Amino acid sequence: MRGGAVSESAPIYYEEMSKVAGKENDKQSITLTATDDAYNFGDYITLRSRTGHKPQVLTDRGAIISERMAGMMDAKVGDTITITDSSGTERKVRVDGITEMHIGHFMFMTSGGYKHVFGEQYQSNAYMVRLKNHETSNVESRSTKLIKLDGAKGIVQNTTSKKQVATIVDLPDQIMEVLILAAELLAVVILYNLTNLNVSERIRELPTIKVLGGLGVLVYRRLKTVDMLGALKSVE
């Protein structure tokens, strides 16, 4: 933690908890993070409401849970929820706030809140770390070095969550691109066929084409070109 690559670090308590909930009524994983320095906790994780981005402040009264977790448990601020810790014991926690997080289930509390819920003294077992170089390649390289240390049991990278968010955000864009391309092709084909049919049926009614002979082909092509451009413009 005192290495040159580390910008700053803070001790925390980290535990994987669970809850049987959701549409499938299956076991959902919940990540608990507790800190004894609530004042500086925001330097590592931003806790805010989705609407209005109102800051969510950690207190000893309960826990702040992620928005996705609140939706899973149909919980609101002031409600008391029940979760299961790593030893299989059920714990009751008051929802003191809901923070904007759309991936994963997270719960944050102070050391005082931890003592109230678990009935034991708070003791850190992990570190939150900020690197001076935030590039993904550097994060992965440093993580590989840290996991080799005797005191390291595991590492959780926020780059993984960022990749998941990026994948979810990019997927609708890719689908829309395919739909727009299909709509453009459909518009071109329909207008082309309509123009072709219209000119074919009215060829005898177009004296200009009949009189001009070879020049009629030019008119015919221009009609198709104009319709194609109109189809592309309408899709835009």
Report on this structure.
The longest helix has 44 residues, at 158-201. The chain has 236 residues and is α/β, with parallel strands linked by helices. It has 6 helices and 7 strands; from the N terminus they run βββαβββαβαααα. The protein has a 7-stranded mixed beta sheet with strand order 4-5-3-6-2-1-7. α4 packs antiparallel against α6. The two termini are 54 Å apart. It has helices spanning 67-73, 111-118, 136-147, 158-201, 207-212, 214-235; strands spanning 6-21, 26-35, 63-66, 80-84, 90-99, 106-110, 126-131.
Task: From the structure above, extract its key features.
236 residues, 6 helices, seven-stranded mixed beta sheet, alpha/beta, elongated, 42% helix
Topology readout:
Layout lengths: L5 E16 L4 E10 L27 E4 H7 L6 E5 L5 E10 L6 E5 H8 L7 E6 L4 H12 L10 H44 L5 H6 L1 H22 L1
Parallel strand pairs: 2-6, 3-5
Antiparallel strand pairs: 1-2, 1-7, 3-6, 4-5
Helix pairs in contact: 4-6
The strand line-up of the biggest sheet is 4-5-3-6-2-1-7
Strand content: 15-25%
What is the averaged pLDDT score?
A: 81
Largest sheet: 7 strands, mixed
Low-confidence stretches: none
Q: What distance separates the N and C termini?
A: 54 Å
Shape estimate:
elongated
β-strand number: 7
> How many helix segments?
6
Helix/strand/pairing class, anyone? alpha/beta
- Series of secondary-structure elements, N-terminal to C-terminal: EEEHEEEHEHHHH
Please estimate the helix content.
40-55%
**Rounded Rg:** 30 Å
